[in-house]
Design goal:
Helix content is 98%, strand content 0%. The protein is built from 1 helix and no strands. The chain is rod-shaped and about 135 Å long.
Length: 93
């Protein structure tokens, strides 16, 4: 009976040691996963910041394009006006 109890206690100790080893392994995996998640969150934040900056740049470029198109339209009006003046002056001659 004493041998049976000792054997059972030894088995329990072995099982507990194995369980602790598995728990340690899982804890290491959890730490690695959390570290990777933080890294990916940082990368995502950087990407989002770059995206926001690009949106700001695009807005500025769109505004500049609109301004340039307005200037071009004004010059086209002036050009047409001068062309008409030129045609009138030629017709007078």
């Amino acid at each position: 009976m004493r041998l049976h109890l000792d054997d059972t206690v030894n088995r329990l100790e072995i099982v507990e040691n194995e369980r602790f080893a598995i728990d340690d392994k899982h804890q290491d995996e959890i730490k690695e996963i959390k570290r990777e998640k933080r890294r990916l969150d940082d990368l995502l934040t950087i990407r989002e910041n770059e995206n926001d900056n690009m949106k700001i740049d695009m807005t500025g470029l769109k505004q500049a394009l609109i301004e340039k198109e307005h200037i071009i339209a004004e010059y086209e009006k002036k050009l047409k006006h001068y062309e008409k003046k030129y045609e009138k002056s030629i017709m007078k001659l």
